[in-house]
Amino acid sequence: MVMSGPETFGAAHAEAEIERLQRAGTTVEWKAPTGERFSMLIPPTVYPPREDTDLLASVLTSQRLPPKTEWLEIGCGSGALSLHAARLGCKVTACDINPLAVACTRAQFAQNGLKATVLEGGPGPLADGFSSQWGGDQTYDVVVWNTPYLGADALVDGMLGPMEEAALTDTDRVGLFVRMARLIATTPLLSNNGVAYLTVSSKGAGQNACELAWAEGVAARCIATTSFEDGEQLSVIAMWKPYADAPVLHRPVTTSTNDDVVALAGVAGGTVRADVQTTGRGRRGRLWKSYSGAFMGSWLIHSGQGWPHTTGDQLRVGEALARLIRCMSEHGSADVCLKWPNDLYARSSDGVLKKAGGVLFEAVSQGDVHHVILGLGLNIETGGQAYASLHDLGLETTPEKIHLALHAVVASLFQQVDHLPQAAPSVHVEKEVLHGISLLGPLFYRNQKVLIETVHPSGSLCLEGWDEPVDEPDDLTWSGV
């Protein structure tokens, strides 16, 4: 028996669905971002072009897709986005789990004298078929999905029939956004230099979409948003394989992963992790201690001419790291926080917030070549009474898995991807800094208790009543640490 909301699908529901399918189609005119207009006959139960279609079309137009781009649209509905892509010169494959949407898209392409492969199916549990069923068993440069976003309340009182329910609601136990991230990470569906564009709603995965992708080892960056009067926000999330052409290396023992990443990786995005490092470097050349069960790794962020990194870069990494850990552990903000400018704190098993990780940038020049290196340390297992760990947050993981997740975070913040806008400083960085101060402060500067006025774009702290911003952590005293 098929379930529709709280009721078992019975004869009355079947009759209602038959009635829906017998309704007349609706003619819709859709204007593409290029100005071209498409007149479409949309059958019942097929999703027509709407605001989310316009948002995604606008983003994709701005990406300047080259001719013969291998394109896959999942959940094509009316076929509007794929029609637009075909006009831009893409080689189009599209799919939908609704057979009427498949027929509609095929008809639109025939009507406009365009070619496409349109298949029935889509991502879902393994029982629904492998990607060869709905993706044509090939690799794509661009994958597009305006993901279902309606909640379970849309299933009550027969608001949707089975076809609409399947196409417009995310009832997947794993979550369709996460399922897509796993496909990108583990299958050749997306090419090494390809990008997937997914529309998500704040009523669904949009609340923490990037963190969900990072946890699967997939780079993700929000590149466009639009809001509605009811408070809902739609976002376009770009996802890709992080630094696909750079090495991801592991060394059981080394002197310093910062040294290794320059000597062994050689290209931006290369990364090295070690189980033990004997002479790791912390701030101001201090020894970066090595603990059993800790993650220790470095990334070559830049190699070439000078690259001006600031305290703000540490804050961006630290803020993203805090979001990732909350998402992976399902612990709230009271148990994970950022201590300005570069330490991650977590609540240990004794209920006290203690240091659990750190972020460090180092600049190294070799002749005319300037290297910028990012080092990350994170306690996975308990590091003694003085420190906290991911285990204290109930997160059972491994250095290898954390390495892949952090690799995705670093790529999301710093990798230059063709036609994608660079990651903007998160609007949540200042909020994260202030949150850390609320848990670990108050702060004292020159023996005086101070309040934070704002966080400067460079990452420095602007203090109320003081003219010059503070950029040196050793000048501050944290009363709660």
Quick rundown:
The protein has 481 residues and is α+β, with helices and mostly antiparallel strands. It contains 12 helices and 25 strands.
Protein architecture, described:
The chain is of the alpha+beta class. The chain folds into three domains: 10-240, 3-Layer(aba) Sandwich (Rossmann fold); 248-414, Bira Bifunctional Protein, Domain 2 (BirA Bifunctional Protein, domain 2, 2-Layer Sandwich); 429-478, no CATH class. It contains twelve helices and 25 strands. The chain has helices at 11-21, 51-62, 80-87, 99-111, 131-135, 162-168, 176-186, 209-215, 257-265, 311-329, 399-414, 429-440; strands spanning 3-4, 7-8, 26-31, 37-42, 70-74, 91-96, 117-120, 140-146, 190-201, 219-227, 233-240, 248-254, 271-277, 280-281, 287-288, 294-304, 336-339, 343-347, 353-366, 369-379, 443-445, 448-450, 452-455, 461-463, 476-478. Strands 7-6-5-8-9-11-10 form a seven-stranded mixed beta sheet, with helices on both faces. β12, α9 and β13 (271-277) form a beta-alpha-beta unit. α2 (51-62) packs parallel to α3 (80-87) and α10 packs across α11. The radius of gyration is 25 Å and the shape is elongated. It starts with a strand and ends with a strand. 45% of the residues are buried.
CATH superfamily of the largest domain: Vaccinia Virus protein VP39
CATH topology of the largest domain: Rossmann fold
Strand content: 25-35%
Helix content: 25-40%
Provide mean pLDDT, rounded.
87
Number of DSSP strand runs: 25
Secondary-structure map:
Layout: E1 3-4, E2 7-8, H1 11-21, E3 26-31, E4 37-42, H2 51-62, E5 70-74, H3 80-87, E6 91-96, H4 99-111, E7 117-120, H5 131-135, E8 140-146, H6 162-168, H7 176-186, E9 190-201, H8 209-215, E10 219-227, E11 233-240, E12 248-254, H9 257-265, E13 271-277, E14 280-281, E15 287-288, E16 294-304, H10 311-329, E17 336-339, E18 343-347, E19 353-366, E20 369-379, H11 399-414, H12 429-440, E21 443-445, E22 448-450, E23 452-455, E24 461-463, E25 476-478
Parallel strand pairs: 5-6, 5-8, 6-7, 8-9, 12-13
Antiparallel strand pairs: 1-2, 3-4, 9-11, 10-11, 13-16, 14-15, 16-20, 17-18, 18-19, 19-20, 21-22, 21-25, 23-24
Helix pairs in contact: 2-3, 8-10, 8-11, 10-11
